[in-house]
Every structure is written in structure tokens, then in C-alpha cells.
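Please predict the structure of the following assembly.
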Amino acid sequence: MTFRIREIKRTAAGREIVRDRDLPGDALSIGRAAENDLHLPDLAVEPRHARITLNDAGRLSVAALGSLGFVVDGVDARAASIDSAVGAELGFGTWRITVSRDADGTVLLTLRQADDAATRSGDLEQKRGLSLAGVLPGKRAMSWLLAIVILIGFLAVPVISNLTRDRAAKGDAVIGDRSWNPGALSLAHHSLTDKCEACHIKPFEPVRDATCLSCHKDLQDHADPQRLAAAHGKLGVGDAALWSIAHAFGKEGPGACRDCHAEHQGQTRMAAPAQQFCADCHSSLKKNLPDTALGDASDFATVHPELTALVTTDPLSQARRAQPVGPGLREDNGLSFAHRLHLDPRGGVARMAASIGAMRGYGGSGLQCKDCHRPTEDGVRFQPVKMERDCEGCHSLAYDRVGGVVRKLHHGDVPQLMADLWAADWHRASPMAGLIDGRRRPGSAGQAMGVSGPFAFRYPAPVRPGLSVGAALSRQGICGECHRPATINGRPGVVPVRQPARYMMHGWFDHADHKQEKCTSCHAAAKSDTAADVLLPDLKSCRTCHAGEDAAAPKVPSTCAMCHGYHTVEHGSDRRDRAGG
Amino acid sequence: MAGTPASRNREYATAHESFLRHRGFRWAKVALGLCGFSLAVYFLTDPRPRPSGSTWIGYTLGTIGALLIVWLALLGVRKRAITPGRWSLKAWTSAHVYLGLSLIVVATLHTGFQLGWNVHTLAYVLMMLVIASGMFGIWAYASLPRALSDNREQMTQGQMIEALHALDRQLNDAAQPLDRARSDLVIAALAQDYFAGGIGRRLSGHYPAYATQAAVNALSLAGEGDAALDRVEKLLVRRKAMLDRLRRQMRIKAMLEVWLYVHVPATMALLAALTAHIISVFYYW
């Protein structure tokens, strides 16, 4: 067996010198010492470094002799077995020995000296290629880039734009502050969405009440500020601490606009203040403000005074007084009227309504509330009952007929009534005669007169040409059916009738919201025999459906704001539109 | 007594405590306490009109969250400062992980679930991105080093590259007798860059048909008998095996490293967004 050793050396000029020599035998030694078969002059190589033995199958065994190993195909080893047909590369210091087979089958060992040691652990540059640093931009660069982009786009641009904008010029809006908007503005303020500076006037200064009031000019104070402060009572330790922090940050309050009206809560109506805002003062108002006329209130279901209605005590002078609502509450509205009589489904009124139903639109089962009480256009309240429209179907004011024309008294106009009656041409042969003192059948008069009203009024016997004004205005007369005679400014007349649209001036009630209820579930009209009955439901009645803010179904959760206004204490509720519910 | 050294050894082996278990999960308990506190103040109070960052609870949670974020980011400074003694980096890392996770609760409750297209939500999203990448990092550090070590089989990374170089040199010599077409195949294989391919290749470890594979395929069809051809084919197969191992190494390494490429830049972006968030809130106060 033979080893063929091929030494490749490079001259200074770069020319390669290739020298082959054959070494007979089946083993050879490698080392720095000159006596080795393969003499490798390199200090990193041991004097007697390794030994290679060759077996019959052309397999080489390499074994280290000293303490240092060698490199086989890039890997450190102390022993290796190599098939010369496949080959391998051995490394000793800077020397590389390539194992292969020559064309004639001899094992060929090619010696070459490299620039660097085979044993050093890889190229640092190339090792870096293994990590992600080779394929991704550096973390530091990315960090700086992202941070600077964010700081410029979301901070520097809006701030500089805000500080340098021309405050006088309209339409010179702050650039880029849309990204600062923490949430959509309420519907009412939606048009201000891109005009942050409309409310946020000065940097680092909270939105002031004065800014709100610059638009909301006609807002009323809820109460005198000193009384407000007194009503608040002493703040608890926690609240006082929170407020002192808030004040340190420049906030106004308690009681500032934004304390109740939180903005940027989404594109809805600004939420009505929670009942707690009211209860803060009103739950112990009597204690903190002893001279108040108001009862304590903190939750509709538990602490709330009885409802108070403003009832008429004297219709002549229009005097009114606030009275707690209850079954016994009476007023004097000047009218004589019995709801029970008109609503009794088996009474005469019902029969009559049935007989003229087709003409007047009354149902077959007698009069209903809606036949006389007509809702206002918005459905919130009811129009006053009008004689001509709502009563005259039955209570006719016809008194004469001239040719084809039926003459009727003018309701509500006493001087006109007096003139008409004095001038009436009264004679027995007139078609009215039968109406007045003859016997008649129901409905016949109406047919005879060609008017809708089947009833004519009771005329006392005429004492002189024309009808008696005094009789008509008397308790037994035509007017006395519903009115009380009275002398007003020295002239005969009737007590004026007062039909209030509202009884509760500090609260809000919307009939339209209660459409699914029957009238009688709140108003006990069918049991009332006198117009003096104030048929308003009391607190207990409201509480059958309504409870406090945290009420669970089926009760209706009802905050203070459902019925009461804050800024509009006296008349404001009157102005409140339906959407404001 | 013979068993004593062994048992001592075993004790020593189990004495290693990972940063996750540091001091019996001390910082996990602190973080849980913080989450409990945040949840309690959030659900036991009833801010009106709705929970948000601008209630006193919102400001409290926001302050805690902002301070936490700044402190957590300081790990990058802390780990570069080698200090002896009680301020152990392990404790710091343990606290970093658990307090970082507790931010999910603290900051989410701070938002009051009011999110939108604005700088405030940008800060929140960046924070969640940082936390998510950190969670991936913990998973990677807990499970990948074993895979990395298994793949290496006592080779260093440098040796893997050296081995490839050694094979390449042999291939270059061995391919000398080959004809034009076949030597072109070998040249193509040798010219192949081990580190080619972007982040996608690195993470998936999927490299579609590459030159070494193509050369192996072509030469294996060339038939037996020719010793030179045979040798080149065997060298190519070895090269391919080594290349596959190198690529597995790169893939695991990429998984180990990639989270930091999200975690660190996203943290810096978060600090910037947090600054913008806080200043903008007080600017339009």
C-alpha cells in the first residue's frame, strides 16, 4: 500500500508549485518535527501530532497522538475514520490535508497551507450571518425611526400647529389634532369635531365654564351659588382629597359644566347626569338648607316627596296654590262637570253618543276620553276642551231659525249673547217654539232644525220679545248647565273656566311616552262626580311603574333627569322638546 | 455517606431557579395583587357617565401603568449595568415579566374599553404588541434552546460554517474531472449563499428547490461506476445535510431572536406614543 503525497506550495509571485511523492507503507506520521512523514512547519502543530493508518479497503484511520486534536471537515476531533473514496479534509493548524483517491486508485493526500488556522472557531462575520441581524434592520435603528415618526406625527405637528396658528383667521384649524380626540363628540357638539381649539382654548388649561357659556348664553343658574354650596354640605374626606388634586391640575368644580356633562363619550346625546349628581345635595337638602321648601329626594322609588300640583283656588282672581296630589285634592276651575256621568257606558250620555255616533265619530259604547280631550300636536299634553268642537254635539246652542239658517249663541262672548237674545224674534209659530215648550222626541229637534245638535236648551217662558239673558245665565239656564253665574266688572257673566295644560310646573311629563297605558290607569275619571276633583295620579301611582336609577325590570329605571331639569328650574321644562326627554 | 456527594450534586442541579420561579414566584404574586387591586377598584366603583381614562380611577390606573411602562423599559438599561450584590438581574427580569403581564389588566381597565383611531389607542395597541412579543419571547427562551442544542450535536456554529467550507473545497477539487454540464451544476451549488433568503425563509425554514439539491438530483441520475462522479455526489449529499442543519440552526435562532426585533422597537415606539398620549391629554385638558 502506498500514500501519494501532493504538496502544493505558492511562490512569492503567486505561482503554485505542485510536487508529488509516493510514500510506501500503511501508516504515516504527521507533526512539526522534521522526522515526520508529513512535516508541517507550524507552531500550532505538535512535534508528533497524529498518525494515519490505511487498511485494505482504502479506509484511513486518523488518531491524535498528543494532547491536541485536529479538524475533520471543519469539526474538532481526536480520532477519525475516513473512506478515501469519499474523502475528507483534515486540518492541522494552518495546514489542510485533503484526502482523496488518485486516478490509479492510490490514496492521495493533498497538502496546502492556508492563511488562517483551521482550528479557530469560524469566521465572526459569517457567524453573524446566522443571526437575524443579517436579514433585518437593526433594533436600534427601528426604535429611533418609530419613536421619531410617532413623536413628530402625533405630538410635534399638532403642538406646533396649535401654537403658530393665526387665532384671528377663521378656518385656520390646528393640523393633526384629530389623533388626539379620545372619542366622538356628542350629537349637539358634533360640528365642533375638527375644531378642538373651540373648547380647548389655552394649552394645558382645562375647558372652562366660561367657554361653555360663550355659546350657551341663556342658561339659568340652578340656584344661587352660595345656596348651592351650602346645599352641597361638607365634602367627604375622599371627595375633598380628589377635588384638591383636581384643583391642583387647574380643574373647576365641583359643579362645573364638565362635572355633569362629560364630552367625548361617543356620538350620542350627552348623557343625562346620574341621579347621584342630584342626590348629592337633594338627599339631605332639609338638613343643609333648612329654609328650603323642597322635600328631600334621592331615589324615585324610596326618597321622593309627594307630587305637588298647582291648583286653582279662585277662578275669578286666578289664584293658584301648590298642593300635594292625592285622592282628596280639589280645585275650583269654574266648571260644573261630572266625568262619571259622561263616561258611564250605560247612562243617558252613552245612549246619546251612540245615536249620534255616526255624525260625530263617537263609538257605539258611549263617550271615550279621546272624544273630548285631544292631544296637542306633539302628543305631550292635551288641548283645552273647546265647547264648539267637543261639547256642542250634544249641548246645542241653537235658538232660532231664520229661513234656512239656524242661529246659535256665541259661546264665550256674553255681550254678543245678550245682544242675540234681545234681538231674537220670538213667536209661537217659529220652528223653535216646538223646541222650547212643546213635547219632543229625542233627535226630532235636530232633524227639524237641520243641525247636528239634537238637544236644544231649556228656555224659561219669555216675558218679553227676545229671550231673557238673566235666565240664560242663571243656574237653571242654558249657561248654567256648565257654568256658574257671576257678575264681572258689574256686568252679568259666568265664572271663567280654567283648564290648565300643566299642573306640575317643576316636572316634565310626556303623555306620548305613556301611550300604551289607558287614560284610566292614572286618571280616575270614571269615578269623579265633580269637576273639582283633580284627577292627577299621585306618587304611589307613578311608582307602580317607575323606580330609581338602578331599578330592575319590569320597573322603569328613572333618573331625576327624566322629569326634572337642572338649568331650567322654573319654566324650562315647558320648553323642553320631546327629544330632550 | 457515599450517597452524600451525589445527593449534594442533585441538590445543586435543582438549585437553579429560573427567573420565572424566582423566590417562589414573588413577583407573580405582586403582579396578581396589582391586577386584583385594579379589578377591584374598577368593578367596585361606578363612575358616570361610564368608565374611562378620565375618571379618578382612570387617572390612577393610568399613572400606575405609565410608571410601570417606563420602569419595564429600563430593563434595557439595567441589563447593561453589571452590578454585584442584592440588585439581582434575575429578580429584575422576574419582576419585568410579571409586572409586564399585569399591564394587560391595568392598562385595559385604564382605557375603560374606549378605543378608537387615535394616539391613545395607538399607545395601547403598541403596549399590547410589546406584551405579546414578550410572551412569545418567554415561550421561545423556555423551549427553543433544547431544540437548538439538539440540532447542533456538539458542533459550534463556526464549525458548521467551517464544515461547509471544507466540503466546498473538496467539491471544487473533486469536480475537476466532470464535464461542462455537470461542473456547472457544481458551480451553481458552490455559488449558493448559505445566508440567502429573507426573514420569511429564516422563520419558516422552508427553502424551495435550491442548487445543492438540484445538483444531487441531476448527478444521482447520471449512473454508477464513475468514481469521480460518485465522489462528487457523495460530497453534495453531505453538503446538503450540513446546509439543512445550518438552516435548522438559523430557523431556531431566528425564532429565538425575532421577538426582540418586535419587542424593543415597539417599546421605543410605545414610549413615544405614551409621551404623546400624556402630553396631548393635558394639552387639551
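Chain B touches chain A through 70 residues (CB under 8 Å). Chain B has two domains: 20-152+259-283, 157-256.
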